[in-house]
Amino acid sequence: MANSLLSETEKNMKKTVEIVNKELASLRAGRATPSLLEKITVPYYGTPTPINQLANITAPEPRLLVIQPWDKSVLPEMEKAILKSDLGITPVSDGNVIRLAIPQLTQERRAELVKITKKKAEEGRVAIRNIRRDANDTLKTQQKNGEISEDEQRRLQDEVQKLTDKYIKEIDKLLAAKEKEIMTV
Predict the structure, then answer these.
(1) 3-state SS string over 29-66?
(2) pLDDT tens, N- to C-terminus, the chain (185 residues)
(3) What's CA 55's distance to the chain center, in Å?
(4) How far is residue 42's CA from residue 40's CA, in Å, rounded to a whole number?
(5) Which element (helix H / strand E) includes 74?
(6) What count of other Cβ atoms lies within 10 Å of the Cβ of residue 2?
(7) DSSP E strand boundaries for the chain
(8) pTM assigned to the model
(9) Rounded CA gap, 63 and 104, in Å?
(10) Residue 64 pairs with which residues in a beta bridge?
């Protein structure tokens, strides 16, 4: 019972770190990466479809993304979706591929991105602390119901705290790496 609680807690914390990592990867740091387009969906036969499922996306240069749709008829829709997105980049199409030139970031925009990055990291930390709280509440309930002893409850709470510290540290590492990437591009 207790081991399943710990493994469930760890699984949820890992999932939170993965979500934070994806969120940070989708932030534009001045370098062209296909992950910038992950959140963009294109209406394809009436269904909103992620752009990366409709095209091959490459970064041949540090400041350029090339989108090669498998079905050329969806190209105009892709252009519209990119324009509507919060990327702030104008797509250039030659009828076969879309090119996205990633502009240099201003110091102001860098500071704004760092602020957004910190906010996303803090949301992740809060989520992990909420998972810890839920696990500790479960342990208290189990102890009250006589399912585990008080010593066992304390030992398991210590384990949950170690997991919390570990995953918050991982989020801090992701944050530091993203901040460095934003400020040095």
Answers:
(1) CCCCCHHHHCCCEEEECCEEEEHHHCEEEEEEECCEEE
(2) 567 888 999 999 999 999 998 888 777 666 777 877 878 888 888 888 888 888 888 888 878 889 898 888 888 888 888 888 777 778 888 888 889 888 777 788 788 888 989 999 999 999 999 999 999 999 999 999 988 898 999 999 999 999 999 999 999 999 998 888 888 75
(3) 21
(4) 7
(5) none
(6) 16
(7) 41-44, 47-50, 55-61, 64-69, 92-93, 98-101
(8) 0.68
(9) 8
(10) 61, 101
Q: What phi and psi, each to the nearest 5 degrees, are found at residue 102?
A: -85, 115
Query: Could you give the maximum distance between any two Cα atoms of the chain, in Å?
Result: 70
* Nearest alpha carbon to residue 7 among 174, 171, 156: 156
Q: Which helix (H) or strand (E) holds 87?
A: none
